[in-house]
Amino acid sequence: MTEKKLRVKYVKSSIGCSPRQKGTLSALGLKRLGDVVEVQDNPVMRGMVNKISHLVQVDQVG
User: Fold this and answer.
1) Of 39, 32, 37, which Cα lies nearest the Cα of 12?
2) Which of 16, 29, 39, 49 is the most exposed place for a label (fewest CB within 10 A)?
3) Are the C-beta atoms of residues 41 and 5 closer than 8 Å to each other?
4) Considering the entire predicted model, what is its pTM?
5) pLDDT-derived band of residue 1, with 50, 70 and 90 as boundaries?
6) What's the CATH fold of domain 5-61?
7) Maximum CA pair distance of the chain?
8) Are the CB atoms for 21 and 51 separated by under 8 Å?
9) At what angle do helices 43-51 and 19-28 cross, to 10 degrees?
């Protein structure tokens, strides 16, 4: 059984964003523009991605 994952790509600068949003980027493992990470598709990760949806591009994998 394959687990569902989300591919999250950091596409817009966080300059001017709140420290909480910058912390969310860091918690997801996104450091530089263009970084891509794959995270599990669960409610916790969906919530984190939703908070920074204006900074990232999200695709569903698997």
Assistant:
1) 32
2) 16
3) yes
4) 0.91
5) low
6) Ribosomal Protein L30; Chain: A, (3.30.1390)
7) 42
8) yes
9) 140
Q: Nearest CA to 48 among 35, 34, 37, 61?
A: 37
pLDDT 10s digits, 2-56: 789 999 999 999 999 999 999 999 999 999 999 999 999 999 999 999 999 999 9
| Coil/strand/helix, residue 20 | helix
Cα 24 to the chain's mean position, in Å?
Answer: 8
Alpha helices in the chain (DSSP H): 19-28, 43-51
Q: How far apart are CA 28 and CA 24, in angstroms?
A: 6
Nearest to 35 by CA among 4, 56, 16: 56
